[in-house]
Amino acid sequence: MDARTRATATLSLEADMRCHPVAPENGRNATVRRLARSAVVLVELALMLGAFVLGSALAGLLGAANLGTALTFGTIAFAATLTWIVLRR
Q1: Of 57, 86, 62, 88, nearest to 74 (Cα)?
Q2: Is 70 exposed, middle or buried (0-12, 13-18, 19+ CB in 10 A)?
Q3: 29-75: per-residue pLDDT in tens?
Q4: What is the domain partition of the chain in residue ranges?
C-alpha cells in the first residue's frame, strides 16, 4: 500500500468515526450491563438444557422404544426451546 492509499484510508476512517462515534464501554454501568447479559444467556442455556433433559425423560417414561428414540424427542424439545428463544429476541 502506498502513501496516498494509506492517507485516503486514514481520512475515510476518521470521517466514519466522526459520523458514528463509539461510546467507550467502561465504568459501573457497563459492568452491570455485561453481568445482566451474562445472566440472561445462562438462563437461556439452562432452559435449553432443561428442555432436552425433560423431553428425553418424558419420552422414556411414556414408553419410548429405546434410548435413541427418547433422545430424539429431547432434541426436538431442545430445538423448540431454541426457536422460542430466538424468536423472542
Answers
A1: 57
A2: buried
A3: 888 888 888 999 999 999 999 999 999 999 999 999 999 999 999 99
A4: 3-88
